[in-house]
């Protein structure tokens, strides 16, 4: 490596590739180590009629709906997306009415509650839910019909080159975008990194929720994005790289 900052990207494909390209544009090299892969589930979806809105908390849900050939019947229903990137993907797929929250489940709940919907909410989700949308909207008198449409399957081991790089401190930082990814990373990195080595490994995290498993596993050099978005993660990566290598 030639003095250029080199980072480890742990998010699933195709998002990992998009992140690598954005890092490259900032002059940061990267290695992809997706810790999960998406599998579309054979979902038995409810009829679209009668839903007042669709809640989307991940672009993976949209990709799964496309895999299931379910988009055409849903495109006229208003979409509430968790953040800008998910909203952009929904518009690209042809949804006519899309509103973006601020990147967190709480902001999505608030946005949906303020819309004063006249019917139930359809929530195509992952098998492993990171938050309880239905429970959060129940006090607002809203019924949520949750359909698991995809599963993020955890990797059971690290690529040997990635494992060696981690052990040798070859990566200037590791980028983590979800709590479950952080949990998987901790499990797979534990045999490679003793506690004493974890303390000096920089971890760049999307949010406090993502960082929690790292702190529990004695990774103490944890930096948080200012906002749960890819833009904020890129700003964090660039600021960190400049701090380490100079402008």
From TrEMBL:
Pfam families reported in the protein's UniProt record: HEM4
Entry keyword set: Lyase, Porphyrin biosynthesis
Positions of the Tetrapyrrole biosynthesis uroporphyrinogen III synthase domain: 18-234
Enzyme class: lyase
Presence of the UniProt keyword Lyase in the record: yes
The keyword Membrane is assigned to this record: no
One record GO biological process: protoporphyrinogen IX biosynthetic process
Primary role: Catalyzes cyclization of the linear tetrapyrrole, hydroxymethylbilane, to the macrocyclic uroporphyrinogen III.
Family indicated by similarity: Belongs to the uroporphyrinogen-III synthase family.
PANTHER family the record matches: UROPORPHYRINOGEN-III SYNTHASE, CHLOROPLASTIC
Protein name: Uroporphyrinogen-III synthase
Native source species: Devosia elaeis
């Amino acid at each position: 490596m030639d003095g250029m900052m080199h980072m480890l990207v742990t998010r699933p494909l195709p998002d990992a590739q998009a992140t690598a390209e954005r890092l490259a544009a900032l002059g940061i090299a990267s290695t992809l180590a997706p810790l999960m892969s998406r599998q579309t589930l054979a979902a038995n979806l409810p009829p679209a009629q009668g839903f007042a809105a669709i809640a989307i908390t991940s672009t993976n849900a949209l990709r799964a709906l496309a895999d299931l050939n379910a988009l055409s019947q849903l495109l006229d229903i208003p979409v509430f997306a968790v953040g800008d990137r998910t909203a952009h993907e929904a518009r690209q797929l042809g949804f006519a009415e899309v509103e973006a929250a601020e990147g967190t489940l709480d902001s999505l709940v608030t946005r949906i509650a303020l819309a004063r919907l006249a019917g139930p909410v359809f929530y195509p989700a992952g098998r492993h839910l990171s938050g309880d949308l239905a429970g959060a909207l129940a006090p607002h008198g809203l019924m949520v019909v949750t359909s698991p449409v995809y599963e993020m399957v955890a990797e059971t081991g690290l690529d040997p080159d990635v494992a060696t790089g981690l052990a040798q401190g070859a990566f200037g930082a590791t980028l983590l975008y979800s709590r479950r990814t952080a949990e998987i990373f901790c499990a797979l990195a534990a045999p490679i990194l003793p506690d004493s080595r974890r303390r000096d490994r920089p971890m760049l995290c999307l949010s406090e929720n993502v960082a929690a498993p790292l702190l529990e596993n004695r990774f103490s050099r944890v930096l948080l994005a200012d906002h749960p978005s890819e833009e904020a993660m890129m700003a964090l990566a660039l600021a960190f790289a400049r701090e380490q290598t100079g402008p």
